[in-house]
Amino acid sequence: MGRVIRWFPPPNNYIKINTDGSSFGNSGLSGYGGILRNEHGHWIRDFSSLYGFMNNINAKLVAIQKGLQVAIII
Fold it and tell me: Domain named RNase H type-1: which ranges (predicted)?
C-alpha cells in the first residue's frame, strides 16, 4: 500500500522552498528544480535547469543552493 504525502504550508509571512535534483545514472547528466510558495500555498516562483554531469546527492545539493539564491532575490 502506498503512503500519502501531504504538503504543509509555512508559518505566516514565510515562504517554503521545495526542491529536487537528480541525475541520469549516478553520475550522469543532472538537473534540478524547485518551487517557492507562501503560507496559503500560492505559487511565488519556480526554477529548473539542466546542470551537467554529477551524482544524485550533488544534484540535490545544487537544487537547495539554487532555491536559496532565488529566495534571496525575491
Answer: 11-74
Q: Dig out the grid coordinates for 63 from the structure.
A: 537544487
Total-model pTM? 0.85
CB within 8 Å of 9: residues ≥ 6 apart? 16, 37, 38, 39, 40, 41
Asked whether the beta carbons of 20 and 63 are under 8 A apart, the reply is yes
- Inter-residue contact 32 to 63 (CB < 8 Å): yes
Residues in the chain: 74
Q: What is the pLDDT of residues 6-64, one digit of tens each?
A: 999 999 999 999 999 999 988 999 999 999 999 999 999 999 999 999 999 999 999 99
Q: Which grid cell is 9?
A: 504550508
